[in-house]
Amino acid sequence: VNAHPNPAVIARYAGRDNDLDEVTVWSVEVHLDDCADCRALVAAGTPDDSRDLLARIATGLDQEIDAGPAPAPRRWLSAVRHRWMVWHLAPWLIMTVAVVACAVVLQTLAPSLPSLVTLIAPVAPLPAVAVAWSRRYDPAWELIAGTPAAGLAMLLRRTAGVLAVVIPALALASTRTGVSLALTLLPCLAFTAATIALGAVIGARHAVLGLGAAWALVFVLPAVVTAELPVMLRSGSSPAWALVVLALAAVVVTRADSFRTSFGKD
Ligand SMILES: [Zn+2]
User: Fold this and answer.
1) How far is ligand 1, taken at its centre, from the CA of residue 21, in Å?
2) CA 51 – ligand 1 centroid, Å
3) CB-proximal residues (5 Å) to ion ligand 1
4) N or C: which end of the chain has fewer CB within 10 A?
5) What is the whole-number distance in angstroms between the Cα of residue 17 and the centre of ligand 1?
6) What is the average per-residue pLDDT within 30-37?
7) What is the three-class DSSP state of 35?
8) C-alpha of residue 15 to centroid of ligand 1, in Å
9) pLDDT digits (tens, 9 = 90+) for 137-193
10) How far, in Å, is the centroid of ligand 1 from the Cα of 20?
11) CB neighbours (10 Å) of residue 249?
């Protein structure tokens, strides 16, 4: 703490006709921030009518606060709504469920085709994951990026929200069409983890576009043309997918720090 200002200076600072120059006022205020003794001196040197005025204002404020509406209680449901739901995701999730339902219908109508449910499962959650993590679609992203809640935890919470809708839809679709549940869900998780890992580097939107396009060109198109599922989607390949999921999850965890800055990267 700097040396205390001269008591005469403090008395002039507290007095009605504050005739100190600006630099002195500034240095007194900086000192008052740290020094309780001098704050007591200022309080003692404040004229009585000023103190009365302050007391009246404090009483008035207390009365207004007592008379005003009580603060809204934080309910469990509203905490869930504020922390876990992102309303701008709803249309994307509805679209995803509709696409999965269409795949089920098509597969029922044309059983000779390779399983459409298996083919779209890996990329089904990706549009919603990209939207959950992109500043383009989140009007509050600047606010969120500046909070301590930003980063991997928030991203995982939003991704979990997406998967909570997409995984039951895929599970239902796989039991309806009789395709392997593991080969529907594990690739879905693997692509979600890959999106997060890649998204930290190039942005979620680019990661989704890249992974989606690669999947469509390298696997979906040949499968539709040859009417056969690619090797990695046939039975027996689920342990490999499980390993891929674990490896990608490890990558995401080790890069946790980079997600604070990558939120909203486009
Ligand atoms: Zn002091």
Assistant:
1) 19
2) 21
3) 4, 35, 37-38
4) N
5) 21
6) 91
7) coil
8) 17
9) 666 666 666 666 566 777 787 888 888 889 999 998 888 888 888 888 999 999 999
10) 17
11) 16
| 123-137 residue pLDDT tens | 888 888 888 777 666
Residue 202, pLDDT above cutoff 80: yes
Residue found under tokens 């500034």 = 26
38 CA distance to ligand 1 middle (Å): 4
Nearest partner of 152 among 219, 115, 199, 218, judged by Cα? 199
Distance 16 CA to ligand 1 centre (A): 21
- The candidate with the shortest Cα–Cα distance to 35, out of 66, 63, 13, 65, is 13
Torsion of CA 75, 78, 79, 83, to 10 degrees: 180
- Residue 24 CA to ligand 1 centre (angstroms): 14
Distance 1 CA to ligand 1 centre (A): 8
What is the residue-wise DSSP string for 84-122?
H--GGGHHHHHHHHHHHHHHHHHHHH-TTS--HHHHHGG
The model carries a pTM of 0.64
